[in-house]
Known about the structure:
Shape of chain A: globular
Number of helices of chain A: 12
Largest interface: A-B, 28 and 30 residues
Helix content of chain B: 25-40%
Mean pLDDT of chain B: 96
Helix content of chain A: 25-40%
Low-confidence stretches of chain A: none
Strand order of the largest sheet of chain B: 2-1-5-3-4
Distance between the termini of chain A: 45 Å
Low-confidence stretches of chain B: none
Number of helices of chain B: 5
Structural class of chain A: alpha+beta
Oligomer: heterodimer
Order of helices and strands of chain B: EEHEEEHHHH
Strand content of chain B: 15-25%
Radius of gyration of chain B: 15 Å
Amino acid sequence: MYAFNYRRASSVAEAAAALSGDDGAKLLAGGQSLIAAMKLRLAAPSDLIDLSGIEELRGIRRERDGITIGAMTRHAEVAASAEVQAAIPALASLAGSIGDRMVRNMGTLGGSLAHNDPVADYPAAVLGLNATVNTDRRKIAADAFFKGMYETALEAGEIIVSVSFPAPRRAAYVKFRNPASRYAIVGVMAAETGSGVRVAVTGAASSVFRVAEMERALAANWSPDAVAGISVPAGNLNSDMHASAEYRAHLITVMARRAVEAAT
Amino acid sequence: MKVSMSVNGKAVSAEIEARTLLVTYIREHLRLTGTHVGCDTSQCGACTIHLNGRAVKSCNLLALQAEGADIVTIEGLAKADGTLHPMQEAFREHHGLQCGFCTPGMVMSAVDLLKNHPHPSEETIRAELDGNLCRCTGYHNIVKAIQAAAAKA
C-alpha cells in the first residue's frame, strides 16, 4: 500500500471541507473494499478522511413510510435491526448476506453505495426498493444514482449521509453466489412498492439495472410464473471465468422467479 | 502518527505510519504473533480478532481505524494461569485443527458466533463460518468443537 495522509473527521461539514481542497483525497467508511484495493495498489489516495467518528452518520430510524439508515451503519447492524426486520425483511436479509460476518461487522451502507461495485448487494436494494440517497447537498433518487461500473451520480466531494427506504408491500432478494468468493454472480431484488413493481439485478452487468419487462409482467400478475418465460439478452452481461453471459442471463430469470416466490 | 488502543486489556500506543495494517501492528509492533496472516486479501479469516466485541479481519483494517478501541486477540482468551478459554478447550477436545494455521481466526470467529447465536444449529455454524477457511480438516471437527462449546456454555 502506498503512503497517504490520514485524518479523522468529527462532522460531515469537516469531512466535506477536508475533501474540497484535495483531488487525491478519499473518504474511508468501513474500508472493506477500499483498504483491499489500496493493498493491491488499485487505489492510491493521497489522503484518507475517516468517517467512523461521525455520530450523525450512524443509526436506523423508523419513518412513517419506511426506514432511514445512516451511511456509516454497518451491514451487521442493519441485518440485526428489529425495526428493519419488521418493516423491510428483504433488506435485513440482504444485509445479512453480504460478504461474511467479519466483513459485515465493518462494512457500511454508504461505503458500499459510493463504491458501486458491480457485484455488490446493496445497489440491488436501493434500486429495487426505490430508495432515496440523501447526501450533504441533495436527495438522489435510486434511478438516478447508479451510473455505471464503480460510478455514481455523486459529485466530487459529495458525501452520502443516509438512505431512505420506503417499505414495500412485499419484496425479496435472492442471489446465486460464487462458491469461492461468495460474491453474487447474479442477485435479484423483486419488490412490489408503493410506486409500482421493481426488479433490480446486480452482479450480472457493469452496474445494477432494472428489468422493465419483468416489472410489467409482475404488475399484471405477481407470481413466479409471470417471469419464468422472460429472459434478459446476454449481449450486455458480464462474461468471465465464473459464468458466461448466457449463464448469467439464465440465472437472472431463475433468481427473479425465486425472489417473487420468496417475497413477503 | 500516534495510535493508542487497548489490546487484551493492556493499554498500548505507538508512532506508526498511517498505512500500517492492524494485523501488522499486532504482530510486528506488539509481537503478538498468534493472529495469523493467511491470504492477506480478507478472505481466509486467519487474522480475525475482536474490535470492541465484534469479530473483524485485522488484515483489512488500518491500525488507525482501531484508535481508542478495545482489541482482543487469541492471546487474550486464555486465563493468566494458562487455563484455556472454553472454545479453545473444545477445539482441543474435538481435534478441531490439524496444521493449526487457521485456528486462531477460527476460535475468535467461533467465540463471536456464539455471542450472536448461543444455540446454533449445525447449518448456522457452517453458514457463519463463511469467512474462515481451513484447508485441512474439512470443517467437520471444527463444527463439532463449536457445537460442544455451545452445549457447555
